[in-house]
């Protein structure tokens, strides 16, 4: 993606473009649809089963922020990048506190890795923002960055890129026992150490992955 394709690009050699406007007609991002005919996994975690065939996800914990009959999308929440949140703020000519400089941005997924999305607590009160679950929102507009810059957003993840599933793809992968599913919680989403998150999700399901016998993806 060229930097000029998003409203908050960095007009240098294209390093990272943060917080693009989400085009509702964009085929990469599923739209809401009738959710009555299947289990909705919005505000759930996906964790890989021991049989996960895609090595990119063998130790990933994914937060599903939208799921419908048109597909699903979410973010890996345990893959910190070498880039800090403060460093990305500086690239956008915004001030950054020491806390922001010490907070890593997350590798959210392999689609649009140059684009940023902020998962945070609170209300969807920004220019481009929507609620995922109780007290959890996704914001993609630049106005949220002023709160991050001023340490006024207590719980957040800045994810670069996202994960996407087409219609029926996630359900098929779960039925093939690639993924396990558990309800999301704020402790794991915002406060747990990144390196502990997969095991905490297994513990939440009462599963020892070393002794796990495949039966079903839903728990």
TrEMBL record:
Which PANTHER family does the entry link to?
A: UNCHARACTERIZED PROTEIN YQGE, UPF0301 PROTEIN YQGE
Signal peptide coordinates: none
Q: Name one GO cellular component term.
A: cytosol
Q: Please give the Pfam families that the UniProt record associates with this protein.
A: DUF179
Q: Which InterPro entries match?
A: AlgH-like
Its domain of life reads Bacteria
**Protein name in the entry:** UPF0301 protein NCTC7911_02650
Record family assignment: Belongs to the UPF0301 (AlgH) family.
In terms of HAMAP family, this protein maps to:
UPF0301 (MF_00758)
């Amino acid at each position: 993606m060229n930097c000029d394709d998003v409203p908050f690009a960095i007009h240098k050699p294209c390093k990272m473009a943060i917080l693009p406007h989400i085009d509702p007609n964009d085929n990469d991002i599923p739209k809401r649809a009738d959710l009555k005919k299947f289990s909705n996994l919005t505000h759930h975690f996906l964790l890989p089963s021991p049989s996960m065939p895609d090595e990119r996800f063998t130790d990933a914990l994914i937060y599903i922020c939208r799921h419908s009959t048109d597909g699903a999308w979410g973010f890996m929440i345990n893959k910190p990048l070498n880039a800090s949140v403060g460093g990305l703020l500086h690239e956008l000519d915004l001030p950054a506190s020491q806390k922001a400089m010490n907070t890593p941005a997350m590798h959210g997924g392999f689609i649009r890795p140059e684009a940023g999305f902020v998962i945070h607590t609170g209300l969807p009160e920004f220019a481009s923002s929507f609620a995922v679950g109780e007290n959890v929102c996704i914001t993609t507009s630049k106005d949220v960055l002023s709160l991050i810059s001023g340490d006024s957003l207590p719980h957040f993840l800045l994810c670069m890129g996202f994960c996407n599933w087409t219609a029926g793809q996630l359900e098929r992968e779960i039925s093939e026992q690639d993924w396990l599913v558990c309800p999301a919680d704020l402790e794991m989403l915002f406060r747990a150490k990144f390196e502990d998150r997969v095991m905490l999700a297994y513990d939440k399901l009462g599963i020892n992955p070393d002794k796990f016998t495949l039966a079903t993806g839903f728990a």
